Amino acid sequence: MSQIENNEVLQCIHDRRSVRRFQKKPVSAEQLTCLIQAAQAAPSAMNEQPWYFVAIQKRELIEQLGQLLADSGEDPYYGASLLIVGFGRREAHSPITDVTLAMANMMLAAQSLGLGTCWIDYSRHVFNHPQFAGLQRSLGVPEGYFCVGSLIVGVPDEQPQAHTVQHQIVSVVG
Amino acid sequence: MSQIENNEVLQCIHDRRSVRRFQKKPVSAEQLTCLIQAAQAAPSAMNEQPWYFVAIQKRELIEQLGQLLADSGEDPYYGASLLIVGFGRREAHSPITDVTLAMANMMLAAQSLGLGTCWIDYSRHVFNHPQFAGLQRSLGVPEGYFCVGSLIVGVPDEQPQAHTVQHQIVSVVG
Fold it and tell me: How far apart are the C-alpha atoms of A86 and A148, rounded to whole Å?
């Protein structure tokens, strides 16, 4: 590659949308492995790799999590059949940056596999809530980790339009 | 695409390294535009697009920034000829997530163009330091923004090995 034209990476970046409607088809184990490996390929400060992911495909559990803090009857996970929750090690140098970069890799890897994703911040409020401290442990998250965010993943059942760019976003000092 | 084999996006994700040695060749204006457009294609909470980037190609300015807080004689920007500093709007819903996801897009876009990058956290300490508050303004950053991080960008002059994966990083609840 290395050209701008016919560049599948640029195409993938520009084609990605936040998807909130999914077909009933499951994400395969092979696809999930692919996403996790993409996350692991992200950089991290001092190579600490301070990330941990919980991939939940058990529909009832996703629903239960969705009900813990949701004010309304709305499902914060939009009925997705796969939820990947990202955690960072509290004592690491830059856990939020590192876990977010790893999750960005997952979003683009998913797009390249024909899967849609949407970043769901709601999980942070659940998993970092003192009342639900036992949840992380029960899902195998090591001690000393906190939730950075989550992704819902699935086969898209919608094709949202691209957002228009809202404002000037760059100064070039050449 | 959408297959795992011969998937240029997955390839790009796995081939990316943090690069700290660059050839003297400049990043072209066309390549820089490409990186900024990739950033703009990232998702943001409530579609706020709460990001702003300063792309600095003026070598003396990069050097000056590098000397503001560096303890030692080391150059925190590794002699790079392009520094892209990312800022987020303080009052936005999730500025750190949004700007980091945008910068992740830039890192992979750069990789796809044959460019190397490295996330440099040092810029946060400079730009968010009260002593240097005037700096942001002088570089055109709107009021109410703070620095999330930065990337050095250039034509790689090294091919670092991939890091080995350090530990178990996933629980699957199926």
Answer: 6
For B93-147, the pLDDT digits (tens) are 999 999 999 999 999 999 999 999 999 999 999 999 999 989 999 999 999 999 9
Total CB pairs under 8 A between chain A and B: 200
Helix or strand or coil: residue A166?
Answer: coil
- Our CA-based measurement puts residue B76 at a distance from the nearest CA of chain A, in whole angstroms, of 14
pTM: 0.97
Residue B131 DSSP label: G
Q: Residue B103: closest CA among chain A residues belongs to which residue?
A: A101
Contact B13 A118 (CB under 8 A): no
Is B8-154 assigned to CATH 3.40.109.10?
Answer: yes
Cβ neighbours of A28 (radius 10 Å): 12
Short-list A104, A173, A2, A4, CA closest to B85: A173
Q: Where are the domains of chain A?
A: 8-154
Round to whole Å and give the CA distance between A36 and A28. 13
